[in-house]
Amino acid sequence: MSLNPVARVGLGRRIARVVFSLALLALAGLLIFHHWVPDVFGLGLIADNLAPWLGVLVLLAIVPLALIRGKLALLSWCVPAIVWTLMFGTAVLPATTPPADASLIMATQNAYVTTNGLLESELTRGSVDVLSVQEISPEQVDDLQRELSDVFPHYVHVGTVAVFSKYPLRNTQALDLGLGWKRALRTDVITNQGPLRLYAVHAASARPADHASRDRMLDQLESTIATDSAARIVAMGDFNATSTDRNMSGLLKYLRDTPSSHWGLGMTWPDRPFPVMRLDHVLISDSLTGSSRTISVKGSDHRGVIATLAPVE
After folding, report:
1. Residue ranges in 124-181 assigned as alpha helix (H)
2. pTM above 0.90, yes or no
3. What residues pair up with 110 in beta bridges, in sequence order?
């Protein structure tokens, strides 16, 4: 005996609720266990770095939820919504910025092709105390040093990384971090509040099928910082990895990202049409506090990050 139309609708809705619930529970599982996604054909890299955007799927799921209704569907929708909120909710809220009279302003920018945008931006117009620039040639460093010598009287340069500072830089050491050539440096910034150990980093590129060199650099950086006894440590630059990348998890045992002082997750790449990942970071040790914001710099596909930091009282 065939079902009448009303019964068919009821059965179809029940099946839809079950499928919908299973899909949402799978989404919650992906959020929690994205580090466990096998990195086959770059799937692990993609799942890690786009994890925050899974929240968009949670929001879009409201539409079918409204159509199929039901307690099971609603409870299932709440699971990934709660998981996403616990993972990223506080990071979306604006963080408190330390008072200006007790702060140190540090910034990082991937220059990409040209340094003209740097010279026209607020990064080089007085408020920033220490500036790290990546993807920069020796000729560009010389040009910047001539242009910025009044603002930043101190600078160091290693490979594709340069640091410009208002404060003296001491004990500078080039780091290859397992890459085979120098693409990072360590230096001590002698600030008015005491020395600060700075790691300026330009990690190797990461693509779905090719990120072994970047992974090796991040692992080496983690090992280096794990044995660093400096009281205050900052690591900043283009890490070519988001904070949800599995290869950043080791480094984030010792340092933490500076939260955004504006609403949102402080995405930095690409600059146009809008950023979808935070590849550029100012990471700080527990002895420091602060917040950061991003700015668009002409000529670069990365947004700059400006962090206002202060010692923890």
Report:
1. 138-148
2. yes
3. 134
